[in-house]
Amino acid sequence: LQPDGAGGADVVWEWRLWDHLVQDYDDAMLNFGQVSKHPELFDINYCPPGGKVACRNQDVLSAVPTFASGNSGLAVFGKDGKEGKTGEKDWLHCNSISYNPDRELIVLSLNVPSEFIVIERTKTAREASLHEGGRYGRGGDILFRGGNPQTHRAGARKEQWLFNQHCVHFIPPECPGAGRL
Question: Would you tell me how many other CB atoms lie within 10 Å of the CB of residue 107?
Answer without folding.
Answer: 21
